[in-house]
Amino acid sequence: MKSRYIPFVHQPFCCVPAIIQMVLYRRDLKLLPQEEIGSDLGLIVPEKFYEILPNAKRGEKPVSGWGTQIQKSEFSLDSFFKKHNYPLAYEHHFPTSIKENLAKWIKKQLGKNKDLIACFNAKKLYDTGNDGGHICLIENIDKNNITLIETNKDYPKFRKVKTIKLIDSMIHHKKENLGGFWLIKTIHN
Fold it and tell me: What DSSP state is assigned to residue 178?
């Protein structure tokens, strides 16, 4: 399978930083370590991971789950892009807010050289594992399936999932936790 991306593997709770690395790499932009990206995005982890991720925030488990806190303005993707002078912008699209045919909308975004990320509840989509937020890049869509690029070392890098099940897991993760589609696009100065 030919892909626009080189799949990266994430550190614990660093699926967002790993996906951002993949986006930066595809766009030939300066790469940063996952730990630095995570710190800028408000990464918060359980105490037993402090040694592995010393720059992570300390505190209670957020409602959205362990990991980044990009739903907070100070840790947003747009703040991160601006801080590092990346010519990128982020848009959030909740599945029920997309008015056109979903498959057509996804194909249109991918066709415009944008990066499309799925944010969902992992346990709801995969029927196993963590009952919290997770993200994957969307590689392709055909009929009733979406191909995701996975950063977890324990799973295949390319996973086909039922579109309806992915949408359900996005809605389950909730709009306020940024469940849905994350669109990364180029901005021109």
Answer: T
Contact call for residues 180 and 166 (beta carbons, < 8 A): no
Do the Cβ atoms of 68 and 135 come closer than 8 Å? no
Contact assessment for residue 139 and residue 5, using Cβ atoms and an 8 Å cutoff: yes
96-127 tens-digit pLDDT: 999 988 999 999 999 888 999 999 999 999 98
CATH 3.90.70.10 applies to domain 15-186: yes
Question: What distances in angstroms separate CA 128 from CA 113, 123, 155, one per listed residue?
Answer: 32, 5, 12
pTM value?
0.93
Tell me the two tokens of residue 143.
Answer: 């009929």
Q: What is the CA radius of gyration of the chain?
A: 16
Identify residue 110 by its one-letter amino acid code. Answer: L
Dihedral pair phi/psi, residue 73, rounded to 5° = -55, -35
Write down the domain spans for the chain. Answer: 15-186
CB of 16 closer than 8 Å to CB of 184: no
